[in-house]
Predict the 3D structure of the following.
Amino acid sequence: MSIIQAPSSVVMIRPHAFHPNPETSADNAFQTQALAEDVSTRARAEFDTAAGTLRAAGVTVHAFDDFGDGDTPDSVFPNNWFSTHTGGHVALYPMYAENRRRERRADVIEMLKRDYRVSDVIDYSGLEQDGLALEGTGAMVLDHIGRIAYVARSNRADPVLLERFCAHFNYEPISFDATDAQGTAIYHTNVLMGIGTDYALICLDMIPDPERRQTVADRLAENGRVVIDLTHDQVANFAGNAIELTGRTRVLAMSARAYQALRPDQLTIIERSAKPLPLAIPTIETAGGSVRCMLAGIHLTRRPERIAA
């Protein structure tokens, strides 16, 4: 059951032309100005260290290089353009910013077909031409065990497309409005919440409607999960942008900044179920995303290794 929520393999994209994306700055309040001149070199070094730490923990990392030929500054965040699901299903998503649409790449999907059992690929990306966006597991935080898709309403999560995804993949949609301390709408659901096997991280105070807030809390807890209520400051430090993975043991991958923002009592709850795995990515975080955004989990069955004759 733990592997359903916590995949043992991930896809990561190594950036060679990283910089904060001007096309996404208008609605991403987490995005900041990168100060270092060698921002791309720093981001790549952070990526390599993070990938190495994950591999050392027993997580399978499929790393692909993006040399930046097509102006794809956010390519280090692949969880927005595709997701994978038990039963051999893959989804491709329409992206809100025009330059993010260039992040989709056939070689990633071909690797999944080669190394894992893929029965179908449902491609929603053509709906970009209709002005629709649903940015994968950034827009949706998926409870794979309870089959619920939690979604903070935004221009990156079209409600009609969400309903279509949930019908195709057998999830129940639970949508809500969410704002930060300044009243700015949250651009991606996965910055304010993350779901593990036995716990869930969420800033409930970011859901202004009391009734909806209680509904979300109750649904998160109904499978026996402990709800860890984050503060606005913890979310600003990306504490919600974490993903549980299965290596040699279960781990919770998060940024070093996020780990330092958590209180000891919160870490104690997590450590009953998973080992926190902090990854230092301060340069990458200037783009407005953190560790969860960097990791596209693979919820597919691995093909057996072929033995050469």
Remarks:
- The chain has one domain: 2-297.
